[in-house]
Specification:
Layout (H helix, E strand, L loop, with lengths): L2 H10 L12 E7 L3 H11 L3 E2 L2 E8 L2 H9 L6 E5 L7 H12 L6 E6 L7 H7 L4 E4 L5 H40 L3 H16 L4 H6 L1 E8 L2 E8 L1 H4 L13 H13 L3 E3 L2 E7 L5 E7 L6 H45 L5 H16 L4 H10 L12 H4 L7 H8 L1 H9 L5 H12 L20 H16 L10 H10 L7 H9 L1 H10 L3
Parallel strand pairs: 1-3, 1-4, 4-5, 5-6
Antiparallel strand pairs: 2-3, 7-8, 7-11, 9-10, 10-11
Helix pairs in contact: 1-6, 3-4, 6-7, 6-11, 7-11, 11-12, 12-13, 12-18, 12-21, 13-17, 16-17, 17-18
Length: about 525
């Protein structure tokens, strides 16, 4: 059996298949002041393949040249190093520089010397962090292959261990930060990004090519929560997995949910984890390369951690949803007390959110406005019934009392330390201010009025005019539109009025759905 067969036979014993082949190379550095040594070494090893990768050679002809090269190249697998070059101990000094100055513990160093007497093997092995020591005379072709193969295998194992260590460090760091996140949206995006970073500890270029998504089984409806890569480009967040173009991806996700287990096929990973509250969640990744067993182990550890975090997030979300629901209930109580339809509160909230999004606010802030606006008339709870329930226009004295509901509503809410209630207090205080400064209670003008209050004012009046009230019937839509246009720059911020009128069909759809 010749040397090439020896190397290839060794590869077969590692169960390497075509699907594992990579375009990467094992980088071999030859450091020797004899050009013939470089030529012969590369001639012997040129066609070698180890674990699916060919060899890539680099040449340095002095220890000084090697120091400069290694200072900017930390991914060399094996260095074949001569001892005697500029000085009798140049090679040994280079070993010390690599290990103790560059702190490179992964490169495998094989000392080759033509003058063993200059560096006795026993002394060198004990005093220097090298991996093998060979006299050039004993390095036959087969011995060279054997030495290189064992060195590459050692390098592979060290790199794997190092990646595992860094992967575990990432998991610890990620788990800590993940537990601090309270928003479900931020949480699922954070999970996806952390998993992708775990798989690409060393290769940011590959990381950028990775695609993935997270999904959750919500009462049999599998909803996509977060996306990355090509799935982000498809804009399928918050949709059912049927929105995924690739049928095979959908089938893998369904299979993982059905079998209640993680599925890994080549470069496609479908992680399944179930939290203590019973929620079933999926992380799907398309990796640039096949996922290694040690990477799978890291993913399993990470998923075990985030299952606990998911429970915390869902608990927090349940509390937040309860708070939002309670705010709407209180808002509806205030409206129902004045004999208005309780759907006024919900319509105003939806109108506010739509205007906010169309004006450029992000989804989270727009949702905050939707909920906070539900309390805009909470101060009506403190207005006497004989005024609040009067089926005719107020006289001047009654109107002055009625106007106090803005300040009363703000006072009810302002002492809360909750951000959402603070915003609701602001809206209650300012939603009757006018853009021209003639509103109440503080006669604020233009941008002095918070955008939340400016938007709520438009939504409130639009709904009031277009629906029945205790003292009058709903106006025809043509009359409502004329009123909104007439009040641009007077009562209302003209920018937000234009948004409403230019998207009127969307607002009418909301009214139709909540017209009760």
């Amino acid at each position: 059996m010749d040397s090439n067969e020896l190397m290839k036979f060794a590869d077969d014993s590692e169960n390497i298949t075509d699907s594992n082949l990579s375009q990467k190379f094992w980088k071999i550095l030859i450091v020797d002041d004899e050009p013939d040594i470089h030529t012969v070494t590369k001639l012997v090893l040129a066609d070698s393949v180890f674990l699916g990768r060919k060899l890539e050679f680099y040449d340095c002809f002095s220890a000084k040249e090697a120091r400069e090269f290694l200072s900017s190249n930390d991914d060399i697998a094996v260095m074949l190093l001569d001892v005697v070059m500029e000085q009798d101990d140049s090679g040994l000094k280079l070993v010390d520089y690599v290990r103790n100055v560059l702190n490179n513990r992964t490169i495998r160093i094989v000392l080759r010397t033509g003058q063993p007497g200059q560096a006795p093997e026993e002394k060198v092995i004990v005093e220097y962090d090298i991996n093998d020591y060979k006299a050039k005379t004993e390095l036959t072709t087969e011995r060279l292959y054997t030495t290189l193969y064992s060195s590459l295998r050692s390098y592979r194992d060290i790199i794997t261990i190092d990646k595992s260590r860094r992967g575990l460090e990432k998991i610890i760091s990620a788990s800590s930060s993940i537990f601090e996140i309270q928003s479900l949206k931020q949480f699922v995006h954070g999970i996806l990004m952390q998993v992708m970073s775990i798989l690409h500890i060393d290769n940011d270029a590959v990381y950028l090519k990775t695609s993935g998504l997270t999904a959750s089984n919500m009462d049999g409806d599998i909803i996509i929560l977060a996306t990355a890569g090509k799935y982000a480009e498809q804009q399928i967040e918050k949709q059912n997995i049927d929105a995924i173009d690739d049928k095979n991806v959908r089938l893998m996700i369904l299979e993982a949910l059905q079998k209640k287990q993680t599925i890994n096929r080549g470069n496609c990973y479908t992680g399944y984890f179930r939290s203590n509250n019973g929620s079933e969640n999926i992380i799907y990744l398309e990796h640039a390369e096949d996922i290694n067993p040690w990477e799978l182990d890291l993913l399993e550890i990470f998923c075990a951690n985030i299952a606990v975090a998911f429970d915390n997030i869902y608990l927090t979300k349940e509390i937040e949803d309860s708070q939002k629901e309670m705010m709407f209930i209180l808002g509806e109580i205030a409206e129902s007390r004045s004999k208005e339809t309780h759907y006024h509160v919900k319509r105003v909230g939806e109108y506010c959110k739509l205007i906010a999004i169309l004006s450029g606010m992000d989804e989270e802030e727009a949702e905050t406005l939707r909920v906070a606006s539900s309390m805009h008339d909470i101060g009506k709870l403190a207005i006497p019934d004989n005024i609040l329930l009067k089926p005719a226009r107020f006289d001047d004295e009654e109107f002055e009392i009625m106007k106090k509901h803005s300040g009363l509503g703000s006072d009810i809410l302002k002492f809360s330390k909750r951000s959402l209630l603070q915003k609701a207090s602001l809206i209650a205080q300012q939603h009757h201010e006018r853009y021209d400064g003639k509103g109440y209670p503080d006669k604020l003008k233009g941008d002095q009025i918070h955008p939340y209050a400016r938007i709520t004012a438009i939504a409130d009046v639009f709904d009031a005019l277009s629906t029945d009230r205790v003292y009058r019937k709903a106006w025809p839509m043509e009359k409502v539109i004329r009123k909104m246009e007439d009040e641009k720059g007077r009562h209302f911020d003209p920018v937000y009025v234009d948004i409403l009128l230019e998207n009127l069909d969307k607002f009418l759809d909301i009214r139709k759905k909540l017209d009760k």
